[in-house]
Please model this.
Amino acid sequence: MKRSKKYTAAAAKVEEGKLYMPLSAMKVVKETNVTKYDASVEVSMVLGVDPKKADQAVRSTVNLPHGTGKTARVLVFATGPRADEARAAGADIVGGDELIEEVNGGRLDYDAVVSTPE
Model:
């Protein structure tokens, strides 16, 4: 199959069969990018653990430096001073009983709901 000039130039920068350390691998990925947009990168690692053994399970979370790009839309059921507090805290939708009909009708777009005990 015929490859483009950009592809062959990028492929020449990668040593076939070489194992790269994470930082140098990211450097090679950035140097060999042939697209005009920021492409996604998939990473596979061999950790040498047995997932059948509970003490060797690997579970963790990662905080991305620039977030995931999605912000949570928060709906708050509150009235009076609590509604003002919710708005000051950054709630997207704030209201009282009038919001119940809109929620039941499916007319509101939200990710999380918070309510005050009123």
About this structure: The two ends are 69 Å apart (CA to CA). The first strand starts at residue 74 and ends at 77. The chain has two domains: 5-56, 74-115.
